[in-house]
Amino acid sequence: MKRPSVLALLLVGALLGSGCSRKPAQTAPPPPEVLVTTVQPRDVPRVLERVATLDGFINANINAQVQGYIVSRDYQEGSVVKKGDLLFQIDPRPFQAALAQAKGTLAKDEANQIKADADKKRAIDLFNKKVISDQERDTAVAAADSTTANVEADKAAVQQADINLGYTKITAPIDGLVGFTNNQVGDLVGPSTGPLTTMSQIDPIKAIVTVGEGPFTDFFSRYPDQVQRQALLKSLDFELILSSGDVYPKKGKFYALDRNLDTKTGSIRYYVTFPNPGAILRPGQFGKVRFVPDEVHNALVVPQEAVNELQGSFQVAVVDQNNQVSIRPVKMGERIGAMWQVTDGLKPGDKVVVQGIQKAREGSTVAVKEWTPPANQVSSDGSPAQKNP
Fold first, then answer.
1. Could you read off the pLDDT of 62-73 as tens digits, one per residue?
2. In a 3-state reduction of DSSP, which class is residue 298?
Protein backbone atom coordinates (compact mmCIF):
# COMPACT_ATOMS: atom_id res chain seq x y z
CA MET A 1 0.00 0.00 0.00
CA LYS A 2 2.94 2.38 0.63
CA ARG A 3 4.54 2.08 -2.83
CA PRO A 4 1.55 3.44 -4.83
CA SER A 5 1.31 6.41 -2.46
CA VAL A 6 4.92 7.41 -3.04
CA LEU A 7 4.54 7.21 -6.82
CA ALA A 8 1.44 9.35 -6.69
CA LEU A 9 3.20 11.98 -4.66
CA LEU A 10 6.13 12.01 -7.10
CA LEU A 11 3.79 12.49 -10.05
CA VAL A 12 1.97 15.37 -8.34
CA GLY A 13 5.29 17.05 -7.45
CA ALA A 14 6.54 16.74 -11.01
CA LEU A 15 3.38 18.27 -12.38
CA LEU A 16 3.52 21.14 -9.93
CA GLY A 17 7.21 21.76 -10.64
CA SER A 18 6.67 21.88 -14.36
CA GLY A 19 3.78 24.33 -13.89
CA CYS A 20 5.86 26.72 -11.78
CA SER A 21 8.72 26.81 -14.30
CA ARG A 22 6.56 28.33 -17.04
CA LYS A 23 7.16 32.16 -17.51
CA PRO A 24 4.49 34.61 -18.70
CA ALA A 25 4.84 35.82 -22.30
CA GLN A 26 6.68 39.23 -22.57
CA THR A 27 5.16 42.12 -24.61
CA ALA A 28 7.35 44.55 -26.64
CA PRO A 29 7.61 48.12 -25.24
CA PRO A 30 5.83 50.82 -27.25
CA PRO A 31 8.02 52.85 -29.64
CA PRO A 32 9.37 56.12 -28.18
CA GLU A 33 7.44 59.28 -28.99
CA VAL A 34 9.10 62.13 -30.91
CA LEU A 35 7.89 65.49 -32.19
CA VAL A 36 8.50 66.22 -35.86
CA THR A 37 8.08 69.10 -38.28
CA THR A 38 7.43 68.71 -42.01
CA VAL A 39 9.87 70.64 -44.17
CA GLN A 40 8.30 72.71 -46.93
CA PRO A 41 9.83 75.44 -49.15
CA ARG A 42 8.60 78.88 -48.21
CA ASP A 43 9.49 82.55 -48.22
CA VAL A 44 10.98 83.17 -44.82
CA PRO A 45 11.58 86.61 -43.29
CA ARG A 46 15.20 86.84 -42.22
CA VAL A 47 14.77 87.61 -38.54
CA LEU A 48 18.27 88.51 -37.42
CA GLU A 49 19.44 88.98 -33.85
CA ARG A 50 22.72 90.60 -32.86
CA VAL A 51 24.28 91.08 -29.44
CA ALA A 52 24.36 94.74 -28.44
CA THR A 53 25.81 96.93 -25.69
CA LEU A 54 24.10 100.18 -24.74
CA ASP A 55 26.05 103.41 -24.53
CA GLY A 56 25.33 107.11 -24.29
CA PHE A 57 24.57 108.84 -27.56
CA ILE A 58 27.14 111.42 -26.46
CA ASN A 59 29.58 110.76 -23.61
CA ALA A 60 31.39 113.69 -22.06
CA ASN A 61 34.19 113.89 -19.52
CA ILE A 62 33.76 116.93 -17.28
CA ASN A 63 37.23 118.39 -16.69
CA ALA A 64 38.59 121.45 -14.93
CA GLN A 65 40.08 123.90 -17.44
CA VAL A 66 41.89 125.96 -14.79
CA GLN A 67 43.64 125.02 -11.57
CA GLY A 68 41.94 125.84 -8.31
CA TYR A 69 40.06 124.55 -5.28
CA ILE A 70 36.51 123.25 -5.60
CA VAL A 71 34.20 125.34 -3.43
CA SER A 72 30.87 123.70 -4.35
CA ARG A 73 29.23 120.79 -6.14
CA ASP A 74 25.94 122.04 -7.55
CA TYR A 75 24.24 118.94 -8.95
CA GLN A 76 22.71 115.76 -7.56
CA GLU A 77 24.86 112.78 -8.48
CA GLY A 78 23.09 110.40 -10.85
CA SER A 79 20.55 113.02 -11.94
CA VAL A 80 19.51 114.35 -15.33
CA VAL A 81 20.65 117.92 -16.02
CA LYS A 82 20.21 120.42 -18.81
CA LYS A 83 22.91 121.95 -20.97
CA GLY A 84 24.39 124.95 -19.14
CA ASP A 85 23.43 123.78 -15.62
CA LEU A 86 26.13 124.48 -13.03
CA LEU A 87 27.97 121.34 -11.92
CA PHE A 88 31.02 122.59 -9.97
CA GLN A 89 32.38 125.92 -8.77
CA ILE A 90 36.12 126.56 -8.46
CA ASP A 91 37.28 129.38 -6.16
CA PRO A 92 36.99 132.43 -8.48
CA ARG A 93 38.93 134.98 -6.38
CA PRO A 94 42.41 134.46 -7.90
CA PHE A 95 40.91 134.73 -11.38
CA GLN A 96 38.90 137.83 -10.48
CA ALA A 97 42.15 139.42 -9.32
CA ALA A 98 43.95 138.40 -12.50
CA LEU A 99 41.16 139.92 -14.58
CA ALA A 100 41.30 143.19 -12.64
CA GLN A 101 45.07 143.34 -13.08
CA ALA A 102 44.77 142.73 -16.82
CA LYS A 103 42.18 145.47 -17.13
CA GLY A 104 44.44 147.89 -15.23
CA THR A 105 47.37 147.16 -17.52
CA LEU A 106 45.13 147.73 -20.52
CA ALA A 107 43.96 151.09 -19.19
CA LYS A 108 47.54 152.23 -18.56
CA ASP A 109 48.72 151.23 -22.02
CA GLU A 110 45.67 152.85 -23.66
CA ALA A 111 46.67 156.12 -21.96
CA ASN A 112 50.23 155.70 -23.21
CA GLN A 113 48.87 155.06 -26.66
CA ILE A 114 47.02 158.38 -26.68
CA LYS A 115 50.25 160.26 -25.85
CA ALA A 116 52.32 158.20 -28.33
CA ASP A 117 49.84 158.87 -31.14
CA ALA A 118 49.95 162.60 -30.41
CA ASP A 119 53.78 162.53 -30.41
CA LYS A 120 53.75 160.66 -33.69
CA LYS A 121 51.44 163.19 -35.35
CA ARG A 122 53.51 166.11 -34.05
CA ALA A 123 56.78 164.54 -35.23
CA ILE A 124 55.44 164.02 -38.73
CA ASP A 125 54.30 167.67 -38.93
CA LEU A 126 57.68 168.92 -37.73
CA PHE A 127 59.48 166.64 -40.17
CA ASN A 128 57.39 167.96 -43.05
CA LYS A 129 58.39 171.50 -41.98
CA LYS A 130 62.02 170.34 -41.91
CA VAL A 131 62.30 171.13 -38.20
CA ILE A 132 63.38 167.65 -37.06
CA SER A 133 65.38 164.92 -38.70
CA ASP A 134 63.98 161.76 -40.20
CA GLN A 135 65.57 159.79 -37.35
CA GLU A 136 63.56 161.73 -34.76
CA ARG A 137 60.41 161.22 -36.80
CA ASP A 138 61.06 157.45 -37.06
CA THR A 139 61.59 157.22 -33.30
CA ALA A 140 58.22 158.84 -32.59
CA VAL A 141 56.45 156.60 -35.13
CA ALA A 142 58.04 153.44 -33.66
CA ALA A 143 57.04 154.47 -30.13
CA ALA A 144 53.44 154.98 -31.19
CA ASP A 145 53.32 151.61 -33.01
CA SER A 146 54.81 149.88 -29.96
CA THR A 147 52.13 151.24 -27.64
CA THR A 148 49.46 150.15 -30.12
CA ALA A 149 50.86 146.61 -30.02
CA ASN A 150 50.92 146.72 -26.22
CA VAL A 151 47.25 147.70 -26.15
CA GLU A 152 46.34 144.78 -28.45
CA ALA A 153 48.27 142.37 -26.23
CA ASP A 154 46.57 143.81 -23.15
CA LYS A 155 43.14 143.30 -24.72
CA ALA A 156 44.02 139.65 -25.39
CA ALA A 157 45.19 139.26 -21.79
CA VAL A 158 41.91 140.72 -20.51
CA GLN A 159 39.96 138.34 -22.75
CA GLN A 160 41.99 135.34 -21.53
CA ALA A 161 41.57 136.36 -17.89
CA ASP A 162 37.83 136.70 -18.45
CA ILE A 163 37.72 133.23 -20.05
CA ASN A 164 39.64 131.73 -17.13
CA LEU A 165 37.23 133.33 -14.69
CA GLY A 166 34.37 131.78 -16.66
CA TYR A 167 36.07 128.37 -16.38
CA THR A 168 35.65 128.52 -12.59
CA LYS A 169 31.98 127.74 -13.24
CA ILE A 170 31.93 124.23 -14.68
CA THR A 171 28.64 123.68 -16.51
CA ALA A 172 27.02 120.78 -18.36
CA PRO A 173 27.97 120.77 -22.06
CA ILE A 174 24.93 118.65 -23.03
CA ASP A 175 21.57 117.49 -21.74
CA GLY A 176 22.13 114.19 -20.02
CA LEU A 177 22.70 111.98 -17.03
CA VAL A 178 25.58 112.90 -14.71
CA GLY A 179 27.52 110.21 -12.86
CA PHE A 180 29.19 110.17 -9.46
CA THR A 181 31.84 112.77 -8.75
CA ASN A 182 35.52 111.89 -8.54
CA ASN A 183 36.44 114.96 -6.48
CA GLN A 184 35.02 116.59 -3.39
CA VAL A 185 34.74 120.16 -2.15
CA GLY A 186 38.19 121.39 -1.12
CA ASP A 187 40.12 119.31 -3.65
CA LEU A 188 42.71 121.05 -5.79
CA VAL A 189 41.88 120.28 -9.40
CA GLY A 190 43.17 121.31 -12.78
CA PRO A 191 43.55 120.29 -16.41
CA SER A 192 45.89 117.40 -15.50
CA THR A 193 43.97 115.92 -12.54
CA GLY A 194 41.51 113.87 -14.62
CA PRO A 195 37.73 114.10 -15.08
CA LEU A 196 35.67 115.51 -12.21
CA THR A 197 32.77 113.35 -13.40
CA THR A 198 31.26 111.98 -16.60
CA MET A 199 27.88 112.47 -18.21
CA SER A 200 25.97 110.89 -21.07
CA GLN A 201 23.15 111.92 -23.33
CA ILE A 202 20.80 108.93 -23.06
CA ASP A 203 17.75 110.14 -24.95
CA PRO A 204 18.22 108.80 -27.51
CA ILE A 205 20.52 106.03 -26.35
CA LYS A 206 22.61 104.02 -28.79
CA ALA A 207 23.09 100.27 -29.03
CA ILE A 208 26.54 99.24 -30.24
CA VAL A 209 26.31 96.13 -32.42
CA THR A 210 29.35 94.16 -33.59
CA VAL A 211 29.14 91.84 -36.59
CA GLY A 212 31.71 89.67 -38.32
CA GLU A 213 33.19 90.24 -41.72
CA GLY A 214 30.99 87.49 -43.23
CA PRO A 215 27.60 89.12 -42.51
CA PHE A 216 29.06 92.51 -43.39
CA THR A 217 30.26 91.28 -46.80
CA ASP A 218 26.99 89.41 -47.39
CA PHE A 219 24.93 92.55 -46.74
CA PHE A 220 26.93 94.64 -49.20
CA SER A 221 26.77 91.88 -51.83
CA ARG A 222 22.98 91.71 -51.44
CA TYR A 223 22.66 95.48 -51.79
CA PRO A 224 25.54 96.76 -53.93
CA ASP A 225 23.68 99.95 -54.88
CA GLN A 226 24.41 102.64 -52.29
CA VAL A 227 21.08 104.44 -52.71
CA GLN A 228 19.12 101.21 -52.30
CA ARG A 229 21.27 100.20 -49.33
CA GLN A 230 20.76 103.49 -47.53
CA ALA A 231 17.01 103.43 -48.20
CA LEU A 232 16.80 99.94 -46.69
CA LEU A 233 18.77 100.94 -43.59
CA LYS A 234 16.53 103.95 -43.00
CA SER A 235 13.39 101.83 -43.33
CA LEU A 236 14.43 99.15 -40.83
CA ASP A 237 12.78 98.98 -37.42
CA PHE A 238 14.89 97.44 -34.67
CA GLU A 239 13.64 95.77 -31.51
CA LEU A 240 15.71 95.74 -28.34
CA ILE A 241 15.57 92.52 -26.34
CA LEU A 242 16.74 93.17 -22.79
CA SER A 243 18.79 90.69 -20.75
CA SER A 244 15.59 89.74 -18.91
CA GLY A 245 14.07 88.58 -22.21
CA ASP A 246 11.57 91.45 -22.29
CA VAL A 247 11.21 93.50 -25.47
CA TYR A 248 11.74 97.24 -25.04
CA PRO A 249 8.49 98.95 -26.12
CA LYS A 250 10.05 101.56 -28.43
CA LYS A 251 11.53 100.83 -31.85
CA GLY A 252 15.05 101.77 -32.84
CA LYS A 253 16.56 103.15 -36.01
CA PHE A 254 19.89 102.55 -37.76
CA TYR A 255 22.27 105.43 -37.08
CA ALA A 256 25.77 104.81 -38.45
CA LEU A 257 28.27 102.19 -39.63
CA ASP A 258 31.88 102.40 -38.50
CA ARG A 259 34.50 103.33 -41.08
CA ASN A 260 36.66 100.22 -40.76
CA LEU A 261 36.82 96.61 -39.59
CA ASP A 262 38.81 95.72 -36.52
CA THR A 263 41.98 94.05 -37.81
CA LYS A 264 42.27 91.90 -34.66
CA THR A 265 38.73 90.50 -34.59
CA GLY A 266 37.66 90.93 -38.22
CA SER A 267 34.45 92.60 -37.08
CA ILE A 268 32.78 95.95 -37.62
CA ARG A 269 30.47 98.04 -35.44
CA TYR A 270 27.29 99.90 -36.17
CA TYR A 271 24.97 102.01 -34.03
CA VAL A 272 21.23 101.76 -33.54
CA THR A 273 19.46 104.51 -31.57
CA PHE A 274 16.41 104.03 -29.34
CA PRO A 275 14.19 106.68 -27.75
CA ASN A 276 14.70 106.68 -23.98
CA PRO A 277 12.51 109.43 -22.51
CA GLY A 278 12.17 107.88 -19.05
CA ALA A 279 15.89 107.07 -18.68
CA ILE A 280 14.91 103.40 -18.36
CA LEU A 281 17.92 102.30 -20.38
CA ARG A 282 21.43 103.01 -19.12
CA PRO A 283 24.90 102.82 -20.65
CA GLY A 284 26.54 99.46 -20.07
CA GLN A 285 23.42 97.33 -20.35
CA PHE A 286 23.58 94.24 -22.54
CA GLY A 287 20.87 92.94 -24.82
CA LYS A 288 20.10 91.97 -28.41
CA VAL A 289 18.74 93.89 -31.36
CA ARG A 290 16.31 92.07 -33.64
CA PHE A 291 15.30 93.16 -37.13
CA VAL A 292 14.00 91.82 -40.45
CA PRO A 293 16.12 93.06 -43.38
CA ASP A 294 14.47 90.98 -46.13
CA GLU A 295 13.17 87.51 -47.06
CA VAL A 296 14.79 84.25 -48.08
CA HIS A 297 12.74 82.76 -50.96
CA ASN A 298 11.88 79.06 -51.15
CA ALA A 299 13.96 78.24 -48.11
CA LEU A 300 13.93 74.94 -46.25
CA VAL A 301 14.17 75.73 -42.56
CA VAL A 302 14.11 73.64 -39.40
CA PRO A 303 14.17 74.63 -35.74
CA GLN A 304 17.71 75.06 -34.50
CA GLU A 305 17.13 72.46 -31.79
CA ALA A 306 16.55 69.83 -34.49
CA VAL A 307 20.16 70.12 -35.70
CA ASN A 308 22.92 68.14 -34.08
CA GLU A 309 26.39 69.60 -34.54
CA LEU A 310 29.50 67.48 -34.12
CA GLN A 311 32.99 68.79 -34.89
CA GLY A 312 31.76 71.15 -37.58
CA SER A 313 29.42 68.63 -39.20
CA PHE A 314 25.63 68.77 -38.98
CA GLN A 315 22.99 66.09 -39.00
CA VAL A 316 19.25 65.69 -38.46
CA ALA A 317 16.97 62.76 -37.71
CA VAL A 318 14.41 62.12 -40.48
CA VAL A 319 11.35 59.87 -40.04
CA ASP A 320 10.03 58.02 -43.14
CA GLN A 321 6.50 56.82 -43.96
CA ASN A 322 7.02 53.68 -41.86
CA ASN A 323 8.07 55.80 -38.86
CA GLN A 324 11.64 54.56 -39.13
CA VAL A 325 14.49 56.92 -38.33
CA SER A 326 17.46 57.71 -40.54
CA ILE A 327 20.26 60.04 -39.45
CA ARG A 328 21.02 62.33 -42.36
CA PRO A 329 24.02 64.68 -42.82
CA VAL A 330 23.01 68.19 -43.89
CA LYS A 331 24.59 71.49 -44.82
CA MET A 332 23.38 74.54 -42.99
CA GLY A 333 22.92 78.12 -44.14
CA GLU A 334 21.83 81.19 -42.22
CA ARG A 335 20.20 81.19 -38.81
CA ILE A 336 16.86 82.99 -39.07
CA GLY A 337 15.49 83.76 -35.65
CA ALA A 338 14.94 80.41 -33.92
CA MET A 339 15.10 78.61 -37.27
CA TRP A 340 18.03 77.41 -39.36
CA GLN A 341 18.16 77.21 -43.12
CA VAL A 342 19.14 73.84 -44.60
CA THR A 343 20.93 74.25 -47.93
CA ASP A 344 21.58 70.56 -48.68
CA GLY A 345 20.49 67.18 -47.34
CA LEU A 346 16.71 67.64 -47.08
CA LYS A 347 13.88 67.76 -49.57
CA PRO A 348 10.32 69.09 -49.31
CA GLY A 349 8.06 66.78 -47.32
CA ASP A 350 10.79 65.32 -45.09
CA LYS A 351 9.76 64.93 -41.47
CA VAL A 352 12.53 66.08 -39.15
CA VAL A 353 12.65 65.23 -35.46
CA VAL A 354 12.62 68.37 -33.32
CA GLN A 355 12.17 66.96 -29.82
CA GLY A 356 13.15 63.49 -28.66
CA ILE A 357 16.29 63.34 -30.81
CA GLN A 358 18.06 61.26 -28.17
CA LYS A 359 15.39 58.55 -28.68
CA ALA A 360 15.68 58.62 -32.47
CA ARG A 361 18.40 56.11 -33.29
CA GLU A 362 19.36 55.00 -36.78
CA GLY A 363 16.87 52.39 -38.02
CA SER A 364 14.63 52.59 -34.94
CA THR A 365 10.85 52.91 -35.08
CA VAL A 366 9.21 55.86 -33.32
CA ALA A 367 5.75 57.22 -32.60
CA VAL A 368 5.32 60.54 -34.40
CA LYS A 369 3.49 63.67 -33.26
CA GLU A 370 3.50 67.10 -34.88
CA TRP A 371 5.75 69.70 -33.24
CA THR A 372 4.25 73.06 -32.25
CA PRO A 373 6.68 75.97 -31.86
CA PRO A 374 6.74 77.89 -28.56
CA ALA A 375 5.13 81.32 -28.59
CA ASN A 376 8.46 83.15 -28.23
CA GLN A 377 10.14 81.46 -31.20
CA VAL A 378 9.89 81.75 -34.93
CA SER A 379 7.27 79.26 -36.03
CA SER A 380 7.83 76.52 -38.59
CA ASP A 381 6.30 78.66 -41.31
CA GLY A 382 9.07 81.19 -40.79
CA SER A 383 6.93 83.98 -39.37
CA PRO A 384 8.24 85.54 -36.16
CA ALA A 385 6.06 85.11 -33.13
CA GLN A 386 6.85 88.24 -31.17
CA LYS A 387 6.67 88.55 -27.44
CA ASN A 388 4.38 91.35 -26.35
CA PRO A 389 6.26 94.30 -24.86
1. 999 999 999 999
2. strand
